[in-house]
Amino acid sequence: MILRNIEENEIDSVIKATTPEKSTLKDILESWINEGITKLEWCFVVEEDDNILGRLIYGVFDNSLKILDIWMQNFNDETKEKLLSDSLKIMKLQGFNNVECHLYSDKNNFQQYVRALTSLNFKITQEKKSFIWEEEIINSLSGDVYFSTLGQVGSRKFINAIEKVTEGTLDEDDLAWVKEFGSKEAAIKYFNLLKDIDYNEDWWKLAYNEEHELLGLIVSQRLTESIGGINYIGVIPEKRGQGYINYLVIEGVKTLKDNNIKKVIADIDVKNYPLDAVLQKQGFKLDCTMLVLKLDL
C-alpha cells in the first residue's frame, strides 16, 4: 500500500474510480487548482495493486490548511494511517502547523469519518446546522433599510463592520478567533478568508437605516455555477432584536437568485437560535448538520 500524489492527467479517472456519483468534483478540483486554493502536491491517493483505496485533498484559505475532500473505501488502520497520518506528516514538513476539516452529516459513512479523524486527535470545535433555500419566491419586507456594496464603501469600512457584528456573536468559531487574535485582527482574517472563497464586491453588502446608521452586513458568495452561500451575516449589537436580520437574509438570497443561483446554503452554529428561526421563516430548510474538526500538527 502506497501514498502518492494525484497526477494532472488522472484527475478524471481518480474521481470516477472512487466516487463516480460526484462527477462535478473534477470541475471543482480543477477550479481550486486554477485559483491557487490547492495544488497537485496537496492531493493524495492511497493505492494497493492499482486499486485506489482512499483520496484526500488539502487546500489553503487565508494561509490556513483545510481538508477539502476525503474519501476512504474502508476504514481499517492501515488505510487510515497511510492516507491521513502520512499525508499530515508531509503537510507539516511544508510548514503547516494545524489543519481543519468540515464534515457534513449527509456524507456517506459520516460517523466513520468522524471516528477516523478523532482517533488521530482531531478535536470537534464546533457543531453547525446546514440550511438550504431552493424556493421560487423571495419574501419581501417594507421598511427603510438600504444597502451599500463593498465596492462602494471600501474594504476598511467593511472590515470595521465585520469587527462590530462579531461582538457578542453566538458563533463558537468566531468567538475563538476573537479570543486568539483580538477583534480587529480576527475581522481582517475573516475578510481575507472570505475573499479566498469568492470575491465579488457587488455581492458583499452593508445595511443602513434612513439615518445612515450601520445595521449589519451580508456576504453572499458563489460556490458553484448554480449553488451559492450566505457565508457571513450579522447585526451590530445595538441593533439586534429589531428584525433587521430578516432584511439581511432576504437581501443575501435576492443577490444570489438575481445571478442565476438556484440553491443557497447557510451554515450556522447550533446555538444561534435567533438566526435559526429567521432562516426557517424566510424559507430555508434544515438539510444536515456539520462538524468542525481541528488538529495541531
Verbal overview:
By secondary structure, the protein is an alpha+beta fold. It folds into two domains: 95 residues, Aminopeptidase (3-Layer(aba) Sandwich); 144 residues, Gcn5-related N-acetyltransferase (GNAT) (Aminopeptidase, 3-Layer(aba) Sandwich). It has ten helices and twelve strands. The chain has a twelve-stranded mixed sheet, with helices on both faces. The protein is elongated. It holds the Pfam family Acetyltransf_1. This is N-acetyltransferase domain-containing protein.
Number of helices: 10
CATH architecture of the largest domain: 3-Layer(aba) Sandwich
Name the overall outline.
Answer: elongated
Strand order of the largest sheet: 1-2-3-4-5-12-6-11-10-9-8-7
Radius of gyration: 20 Å
Protein name: N-acetyltransferase domain-containing protein
Domain N-acetyltransferase: 165-297
GO molecular function, one term: acyltransferase activity, transferring groups other than amino-acyl groups
Task: Sum this structure up briefly.
Helices cover 36% and strands 32% of the residues. The chain is an alpha+beta fold and 297 residues long. The protein folds into two domains: 2-96, Gcn5-related N-acetyltransferase (GNAT) (Aminopeptidase), CATH 3.40.630.30; 145-288, Gcn5-related N-acetyltransferase (GNAT) (Aminopeptidase).
